[in-house]
Design goal:
Elements (H helix, E strand, L loop, with lengths): L1 E7 L4 H11 L2 E8 L13 H10 L2 E5 L7 H12 L7 E2 L4 E2 L10 E2 L4 E2 L4 E2 L4 E2 L4 E2 L4 E2 L4 E2 L4 E2 L4 E2 L4 E2 L4 E2 L4 E2 L3 E3 L4 E2 L5 E6 L4 E6 L1
Parallel strand pairs: 1-2, 1-3, 4-6, 5-7, 6-9, 7-10, 8-11, 9-12, 10-13, 11-14, 12-15, 13-16, 14-17, 15-18, 16-19, 18-21
Antiparallel strand pairs: 20-21
Length: 209
């Protein structure tokens, strides 16, 4: 059985651990709780821990959530990647990913999630339970697709987007980087946005009117 380390930067650790054990492909060698730093962003893991993971020949996966515009999970991902540790995608056993769809580093597809043919998903993006990514849609890196979302065919999401529970994105709709959508919102055309700079991350954030 392949070895796996989990790095916990927020989110439901026990649920993810349960799904990994159900899948049966990986033996969890260790779990590291990442300490919180400034603005709630986790501190980089100790270099000795990363060296141990490399020495064990283990892969790793970073668990996070949608807090702080995904920056908690993203900061951990970047630090661990810089440490030369192999980061893998994971999926719940009940999720469905079409043949030919490549899951990049630290992608998670949750319980009963469906990823249809021709979909492109960027690294460190999470697709939560019961959500569906339609044919030929594109999702950027470090996005959070909340539970019960529907991303229709040919839709495009930029990097660092956050979709709340039950969001519906219509066919061919394009959302720019750093878009944030609330719960149970339906978007049928590419919308105008309000842009501001978040001082915590010096990054643009788009909130839809």
């Amino acid at each position: 059985m392949k070895k796996l380390w989990l790095f916990h930067a927020g989110g439901d650790l026990e649920h993810i651990r349960h799904e990994i054990l159900r899948d049966g492909q990986y033996e969890i060698s260790g779990v590291l709780e990442l300490e919180e730093g400034g603005y709630g962003v986790p501190q980089p893991p100790d270099k000795a821990i990363l060296a141990q993971v490399r020495q064990d020949g283990a892969a790793c996966f970073i668990i996070g959530d949608a807090r702080l515009l995904n920056q908690s999970r993203l900061a951990a991902y970047m630090a661990i990647k810089a440490g030369g540790v192999r980061i893998i995608p994971l999926k719940a056993p009940s999720s469905s990913v079409a043949d030919g769809v490549k899951l990049r580093e630290n992608v998670w597809t949750g319980h009963a999630a469906r990823v249809l043919p021709g979909v492109s998903i960027g690294a460190n993006t999470w697709v939560m339970q019961n959500s569906e990514l339609g044919t030929n849609c594109k999702v950027g890196s470090s996005c959070w697709i909340g539970p019960n979302c529907q991303i229709s065919e040919r839709a495009t999401l930029g990097k660092n987007c956050t979709l709340g529970h039950g969001t519906v994105i219509g066919p061919a709709v394009a959302l720019p980087d750093w878009s944030t959508i609330g719960n149970n919102v339906t978007i049928t055309q590419s919308p105008d946005t309000t842009l501001f700079i978040d001082p915590r991350f010096r990054a643009p954030v788009r909130i839809f009117n």
